[in-house]
Amino acid sequence: MVKNNQENSPPELYAQPQHNIRIEQIDSHSREIIHSLNKSGFKAYLVGGCIRDLVLNKDPKDFDVVTEATPEQIKQVISRSRVIGRRFKLVHVRKGRKITEVSTFRSKGGKRTSKTNKGIVLRDNFYGTIREDAFRRDFTINSLYLDINDMKIIDYTGGFKDLNNRQLSSIGDSKLRFREDPIRIIRAVRFLCNLDLQLKKSLKKDLINFAHLLQEIPPARKYEEILKLFLTGNAKNNFITLLELHVLKFLLPNTANQCSNEKNKSFILNALSNSDARVKKGLPLTPAFLFSVLLWPGLTERIGDINSKKTKLPTLLRSSNIIIKQCRQDCFIPKRIENMIKEIWEFQIKLLKFPPKSKLIFSHRRFRAGYDFLLLREESGVNLGGAGKWWKENQPKSKRSYQNK
Asked: Which domains does the chain have, with CATH numbers?
């Protein structure tokens, strides 16, 4: 945890030979934005995850810019930009399909900050200095700034040392930080697993004790965080850690409850392991297949394993609607995704009937997803009477995959 007296200390500066980040590694659009803001008299830096990843020799997903200019001033300086957000105002700058996020230095806001009675921040558009901005961020490793003019990292919180020591540290009191935004608990899990970091005992204790606050987060926001956890290549480790830290039950309670059964847990972990392998191969993933896996144990608890032709589609559909409705209370799933999940599940009945009456089944947009799901079930030990083998040997050769739909 960062101590209060650090807030009055000068920042540590790390020159290029110390961090080894080269200007060519930095996204050209982000550089253009920073130069435009500089020309207009505003200081601007790269901030957060992109610096963290570059220091660790990883490819950043995004390059975020932070500046002393207000959102309205940014919009005046940068063309093709628009102000978004209520809780935190940001500016999105578009170039082709690429969108770069630009934020303004913020202060803690103090008593002016709008919070719920549980301490969760509702609105926080109070602007400040780079120093104030550094100390209002969540973890030290995300509080690094890079001045691309001299290629020096500016570090107010000790994040650079924490990165080198592979340690996750909270900025300020982690109890307060988790109360302000419980999503930081999920972010902590992602950083632990994706960056192979160590967690201090005190931070681990607070993470577990305040995980219940995730129940206060809007279901739509939970959905986005779940996609980040399970569609980015480290799903299996993230899932195991969420279970171990007793966090999953506040994200997907039905899934967490089903994992008390080792068979269900094994099925999910095997599916997530396969998803991670797809990411490593550069293959896409879909939210529909992910949720069809995570919610499947709850469905089979209601109607059985679906390993014979006796299960009827109307029965499956009724139970599917119940399971998805239960999930919706904790995690919003778009209607389009819900329909895709149900189609994948329906194929678990259809694929037990082979050979098919018509070859049109092969051209169904959800055939490949249903087939892959069937194979996962067989891998987990469900006896499906050789269905997987038959469909593998008799389907037309095609490069299409369920993830492309």
From this structure: 4-162 (3.30.460.10), 266-404 (1.10.3090.10)
